[in-house]
Design goal:
It is a single chain. This protein has eight helices and seven strands, in the order αααβαβαβαβαβαββ. The chain is of the alpha/beta class. The longest helix is centred in the last third of the chain and has 15 residues.
Length: 212
């Protein structure tokens, strides 16, 4: 086992997931709504806490696992989350109840992100979490950067695609989209970008003001 693999295994095994989150994870797996890993969720929770986030948008609700982690780090935040699958939203709603998240702290929207996002207000959110269909990830990130306030954070999980992004042999559409996104954001003067190899990988983008 390489040093990197050993470190990843240690972090995975050391991360303690709240019981309600683990139940939501099990339900997500049953539904086929692949949840983010617990170690990635814990990292996102820290970011939400550091931002003292009050308003969060989530593109791709799944069964509520990522939303639970984000809200854990931002106890005063309101989460607006969208998903095209009503069954996923129902599972997420149940997960929030199970975790004792107040109903006033979540706003769940049934619909395609491509239809919902254009109707949302510019520069109105602290964090946008992008975890929907990978083929549209660049468009979603564009919307995310529009929606966050200056200094706001756009988070894109799964960016390393379980090692596929780093493997030059892999040239499928999803992998190419993730590589393009990493390249474009690293070159952009409009954002600060960082890839974190925790869990399945996370691309972190901070929206910069024109004077930065």
């Amino acid at each position: 086992m390489s040093e990197h693999d050993a470190n990843a295994r240690y972090v995975r095994e050391a991360t303690v997931e709240p019981v309600a989150f683990a139940r939501a994870r099990a339900h997500a797996v049953e539904l086929g709504a692949a949840p983010i890993s617990a170690e990635l969720g814990a990292h996102c929770s820290i970011l939400a806490a550091a931002m003292d986030a009050r308003s969060i948008v989530e593109i791709g609700t799944g069964a509520g696992v990522s939303g639970l982690w984000l809200l854990r780090g931002a106890p005063r935040a309101i989460l607006t989350s969208m998903d095209k699958e009503p069954e996923h939203l129902a599972a997420a709603r149940a997960a929030f109840v199970d975790a004792k998240v107040a109903p006033t702290r979540t706003r769940l929207i049934t619909g395609r992100a491509t239809e919902v996002l254009p109707r949302m207000n510019d520069a109105a959110y602290d964090i946008v979490f992008v975890d929907a269909d990978a083929e549209n990830v660049i468009d979603y990130v564009g919307h995310g950067l529009r929606l966050v306030r200056p200094g706001g954070l756009v988070l894109i999980p799964r960016i390393l695609a379980n090692g596929r992004t780093a493997d030059p042999v892999q040239r499928d559409e999803t992998t190419r989209a993730y590589r393009s996104l990493v390249h474009e954001t690293q070159q952009s003067a409009a954002v600060l970008a960082s890839v974190v190899p925790v869990g399945e990988g996370l691309l972190q983008l901070i929206s910069r003001t024109p004077t930065d």
